[in-house]
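Sanity check

After download, print the first record. It should look like this:
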Amino acid sequence: MELFRVYTVRENYQDRDSVVVDWFCENRKAPVAALELMVENLVDLTAVEKTEAQTRLNQLLTSGETDELAQYIRATTGFEVKRTRIDIPLPDGRKVPDFSGKSASMEGEYFHIHENSEYNLSIPITGFVDLSEPPNTFSVA
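Expected structure tokens:
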């Protein structure tokens, strides 16, 4: 199983030279994969931690979903979609990356592209741009 962080770099957005729009699956209908296959320390996690890990893993995109999104974004905006592979299984389910902007320390804007009338991708995808960083700085690491 390969899962990806998927993002677009957008130029000249709200007084910033560049921002990163992270794309994630919002409300996946079925788990992307069994949690046992994606997290090594599953037995050490509480029920709440397991739920949080599954939620965050479900937000990541598969290779096919990334390809679908890239084609859609190129066709509708002209932007290039980039991807970074997330190493699965993760050693610690408490450290599943969150690119959805749902962290308490993040402030930003959402792009609910799955609500567009021409949207035809297989899963509901939303973009998030973190505006909590000062203007003219960004990180894609």
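If your output differs, re-run the checksum step. Summary of this record's structure: Residues 3-130 form one domain.
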